[in-house]
Specification:
The chain has 75 residues and is an alpha/beta fold. The chain has helices spanning 2-9, 32-38, 50-62, and strands spanning 16-17, 26-27, 44-48, 70-74. It holds the Pfam family NAD_binding_1.
Length: 75
C-alpha cells in the first residue's frame, strides 16, 4: 500500500506511525501540531483505527481543510 500511495502522491506522501519508530517516518499522536509539521500537499489521506480517525478529522476541521481534500479509509 505504501508503494501505491507514494506513486499517487509523490513527494507529498508522509507516512506517520503512532507506535513504531522507523527512520525517515514521522512518529506520534496525530494531532493538529503533528499534521501541520508533516503536511506537504493539499490532499490528506487518512487510514487508521476509529479513535485516530476521529482525532484527525477534528484536527483537519480546525485547520479548515476542505472535505474534498480528505480521503479516508477505515480498517
Amino acid at each position: 500500500m505504501e508503494k501505491e500511495l507514494r506513486q499517487w502522491l509523490g513527494d507529498d506522501f508522509v507516512n506517520v506511525l503512532s507506535d513504531e519508530k522507523v527512520d525517515g517516518m514521522a512518529h506520534g499522536f496525530m494531532d493538529e501540531k503533528l499534521i501541520k509539521e508533516n503536511r506537504v500537499g493539499s490532499k490528506v489521506y487518512v487510514c487508521g483505527p476509529p479513535p485516530m480517525m476521529d482525532a484527525v478529522g477534528d484536527a483537519l476541521k480546525k485547520m479548515k481543510v476542505a472535505d474534498e481534500d480528505v480521503v479516508t479509509e477505515e480498517f
